[in-house]
Amino acid sequence: MTKTKGLLVMDVDSTLIQEEGIDLLGEIAGSGAEIADITSRAMNGELDFAEALDARVALLKGLPETVFTDLRRQIHFTDGARDLVETLHDNGWKIGVVSGGFHETVDMLAKELGIDYVRANHLAVENGHLTGRVTGDIVTKDVKLASLKAWSRELELDLSQTVAMGDGANDLPMILSAGVGIAFNAKPIVRKQAPYQINEPNLALALDIITEVRGGL
């Protein structure tokens, strides 16, 4: 059995996909502008992420759980997403996603691309409708970093053999801890600190960075 050659862990909203899933849910709930404002402030590091998530999820109370089927039709993978995942898989890598969004959406996306690891938030549902609360641990910046470390240990990889990529402030700890940390079309606070940047909406460009830094895939 060939040992895994590397691990890529990336954010989902505005990284793996073009949209912010919770903002789309907000539009459906009639609270789009308010939720989008909170999202922007949280991703810029102006608000505590857990508190910002609670505030946004509260505005989704009453939506039917069937909303996620409709939501999937509004979500688009970022250009190069499939190429990135397939190329790394072909070269013996594993892929993980860590999201401040929700399993109800992220699991569908991960299944479509064959992603190996998933960590996201769970929305509470009662009688077929969202309660306006999340259940379990919230995926914060610390949880994102912990996931990177846990998956690398499981694969018997050193952190130097990992790549982390995202756009928001809650992605910074994992970006700074990975062997290759990439800010993807990121907020200013992330671009300022990340070792590498991609400022075009094409995830496949990460392959060039990984190849250059590691001397190959």
UniProtKB/TrEMBL annotation:
<protein>
    <recommendedName>
        <fullName>phosphoserine phosphatase</fullName>
        <ecNumber>3.1.3.3</ecNumber>
    </recommendedName>
</protein>
<dbReference type="InterPro" id="IPR004469">
    <property type="entry name" value="PSP"/>
</dbReference>
<keyword id="KW-0028">Amino-acid biosynthesis</keyword>
<keyword id="KW-0479">Metal-binding</keyword>
<dbReference type="GO" id="GO:0006564">
    <property type="term" value="P:L-serine biosynthetic process"/>
</dbReference>
<keyword id="KW-0460">Magnesium</keyword>
<dbReference type="Pfam" id="PF12710">
    <property type="entry name" value="HAD"/>
</dbReference>
<dbReference type="GO" id="GO:0000287">
    <property type="term" value="F:magnesium ion binding"/>
</dbReference>
<dbReference type="GO" id="GO:0036424">
    <property type="term" value="F:L-phosphoserine phosphatase activity"/>
</dbReference>
<keyword id="KW-0378">Hydrolase</keyword>
<dbReference type="InterPro" id="IPR023214">
    <property type="entry name" value="HAD_sf"/>
</dbReference>
<comment type="similarity">
    <text>Belongs to the HAD-like hydrolase superfamily. SerB family.</text>
</comment>
<feature type="active site" description="Proton donor">
    <location>
        <position position="13"/>
    </location>
</feature>
<keyword id="KW-0718">Serine biosynthesis</keyword>
<dbReference type="InterPro" id="IPR050582">
    <property type="entry name" value="HAD-like_SerB"/>
</dbReference>
<feature type="active site" description="Nucleophile">
    <location>
        <position position="11"/>
    </location>
</feature>
<comment type="pathway">
    <text>Amino-acid biosynthesis; L-serine biosynthesis; L-serine from 3-phospho-D-glycerate: step 3/3.</text>
</comment>
<dbReference type="GO" id="GO:0005737">
    <property type="term" value="C:cytoplasm"/>
</dbReference>
<dbReference type="InterPro" id="IPR036412">
    <property type="entry name" value="HAD-like_sf"/>
</dbReference>
